[in-house]
Design a protein that fits this description.
The protein has 174 residues and is an alpha+beta fold. The chain folds into two domains: 7-75, no CATH class; 79-173, Glycinamide Ribonucleotide Synthetase, Chain A, domain 4 (Alpha-Beta Complex), CATH 3.90.600. Helices cover 22% and strands 21% of the residues. The protein is built from four helices and seven strands. It has helices at 7-19, 53-59, 141-153, 168-173; strands spanning 49-51, 73-75, 79-86, 110-114, 117-120, 123-126, 130-138. The strands form three sheets. A three-stranded antiparallel β-sheet has the order 3-7-4. It has a two-stranded antiparallel sheet with strand order 1-2. The protein has a two-stranded antiparallel ribbon with strand order 5-6. Strand 5 (117-120) and strand 6 form a beta hairpin. The longest helix has 13 residues, at 7-19. The radius of gyration is 17 Å and the shape is globular.
Length: 174
Amino acid sequence: MMHIGDEAMFEEFVAQARSRGIHDIVAVSSNPDDTSARYGLESVPRLGLSGDRASMIAQAPDAALPALDTVDAEWDRRVALGVVMAAHGYPDNPRKGDVIHGLGAKHDDAHVFHAGTSVKDGDIVVTGGRVLCVTALGDTVKIAQKRAYEVADGIRFDGMQLRRDIGWRAIKQR
């Protein structure tokens, strides 16, 4: 994960990425009370970007270089669908400290992105409102949705809440 401490530097990074056609960026604040800082960006992380991600991120803010034009990157063309798992009391008063279980499994075509988590006494615990985002890939929205909920159903923490209707509009249109 890259840390951008300067807001002007971050805004330049976003401008450079957008000028090169990259619009799906997730920004997460280092402040555990503000885990949904998005700067007007998409809130669902992307899976399936291949190439040298570190080079893409490191070079993008430098306007003097044709940075992203020189890095090979390819997007997976499958659908990505993300399900946010939120803390008890979210959004008004999220409870912190609940231990998260079920994170050890490796999943094909799915990834669990951490936002409001930290490690305490060897356990991964809740530290913010939007705790995790389970994102899965599929050839269709329905397949990505099914996979994301399968992974989410294997994760547990007290007071956990998540919506069960993510992707329904896209599925209904087909």
